[in-house]
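Box 3.1 A note on notation
Throughout this textbook, protein chains are presented in two layers. The first layer is the amino acid sequence; the second is a token string describing backbone geometry. Keep the layers aligned when reading.
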Amino acid sequence: MGVTPLVIKQKEFSTRFRGFDVQEVDTFLEEVAREFESQEIAIEQLRQENHRLNLENEGYRKREESMRNAMIQSQKVLDQMKENAEKSAQVTIANAEVEAEKILNRTHKRLSQLHSDITELKRQRIQLEMQISSVLESHSKLLEMTKEENKAADESDAAVRFIRRA
């Protein structure tokens, strides 16, 4: 049998010769019963408070787990975004390298064409210089010949005039 305030209040003791003062024992038992009852009320309040705190704690645990899961998901999303950004950057760099290579190839082709053009223009210049030199030389010879012919003609005209005067 459990000891309750009611059990304490209803407890009866047998009396003997030279026993305890019944009224004093009853007063003490009443006092113990009240104290026991107040302790039971306090214990019940503590049990209820403990139950409330356990429920509250469970709610906090669930929220903590939700937050942890949200943080894990957020980290996964961030990692995926980072990975996607790195891939995108690699693709952009690869595209830029390909485009740079194309530009470089076009530049090399253009440079090669310019070198060919310069070589051809030098060849044409040399050929033109040779042609001009040849033309100048032939005109110079013609001019010399014309001078000699004119000199001979002048001499022959002078001789004819001389002979005509004579």
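The mean pLDDT is 90. The helical segments are 5-10, 22-165.
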